[in-house]
Amino acid sequence: MNLTNVYPSLEGKVVLITGGASGIGANMVEAFCRQKAKVAFIDILDDCAEWLIEHTTATENCTTPRYYHCDLRNIRLLQKTIVEVQAELGPVNVLLNNAADDDRHDFRTVDVDYWDERIAVNLRHHFFASQAVYSDMKEMGGGSIINLGSMSWYATQGGMPGYTSSKAAIEGLTRGLARDMGPDNIRVNTLVPGWVMTKRQLEDRIDDRARKTISEAQCLKQLVVPEDISAMALFLASDDSRMCTSQHFIVDGGWV
Q1: N or C: which end of the chain has fewer CB within 10 A?
Q2: What does CATH list as the number for 10-249?
Q3: pLDDT tens column, 206-224
């Protein structure tokens, strides 16, 4: 699937994407590079990041992203990394808080350390990354923060309460920050993907039973792919969505 929309307001903008080396994040990195933005992405998957940089460099009319190795569970390191991004690329115009981990876990076996680690992986860095780019956006007269949510908790999906709790909380964080940052013309929204056919999902979780579930649950019978999420991210990052804030935008094929 090729994205066709061009957003002139994104050209030259500094876009920071967390968890950008693989899956939805990698697709968003490429999508913003195709808009000729200055893209920085944070991850710990060095091999995947190297491949993505080589891929975008070889792609016609595509800027080359810059990779920053950082474990987002380490907030001080995250803050330091964002300072490096600002020093090397300039003030951050767009932040996509994408990084997350939906590993399954049984609520009966979760201890305090594991619960705290799930929150650190799936929620905490959203707040501190947003805090770190706030001054840039205020000084520039505005910006866009996009938090990646999940339809899993809407669908009452079990087997990963640390993940679903974090994703539900992200929508509360979005609405609170939208109110606090609105006077500075900073827009904060949640982008809520459905069951997206990333490489990991296709390899680990998509079988005939899963395809049957998707077909029965979605109003639209086509599979949701990473480009569908990137298409919404581009719109929410661009000036075309200038009056969209404090909202959640669901891209799930109409999951019932």
Answers
A1: C
A2: 3.40.50.720
A3: 999 999 999 999 999 999 9
What are the tokens at 59? Answer: 């792609």
Q: Are 126 and 71 in contact (CB under 8 A)?
A: no
* Catalytically active residues, by annotation: 163
DSSP string, 56-75: HHHSTT-PPPEEEE--TT-H
Backbone dihedral angles phi then psi of residue 38, each to the nearest 5 degrees: -90, 105
Express each pLDDT in 74-120 by its tens digit.
Answer: 999 999 999 999 999 999 999 999 999 998 999 999 999 999 999 99
- Alpha-carbon gap, residue 203 to 221, rounded angstroms: 20
d(CA 171, CA 220): 25
Q: Can you tell me whether residue 256 is helix, strand or coil?
A: coil
Task: Specify the pairing of strand 186-193 against strand 14-18.
Answer: unpaired
Which amino acid is it at 104? R
Q: What's the token pair of residue 158?
A: 């079990």
According to the model, what pLDDT value does residue 172 have? 98
User: Where does the pLDDT of residue 139 fall: very low under 50, low under 70, confident under 90, or very high at 90 and above?
Assistant: very high
Query: DSSP character for 111?
Result: -
**CA 41/CA 121 separation, integer angstroms:** 16
CB of 56 within 8 A of CB of 33?
A: yes
Letter string b/e over residues 172-181, b meaning 16 or more CB atoms within 10 A of that residue's CB: ebbbebbeeb
- Boundaries of every domain in the chain: 10-249
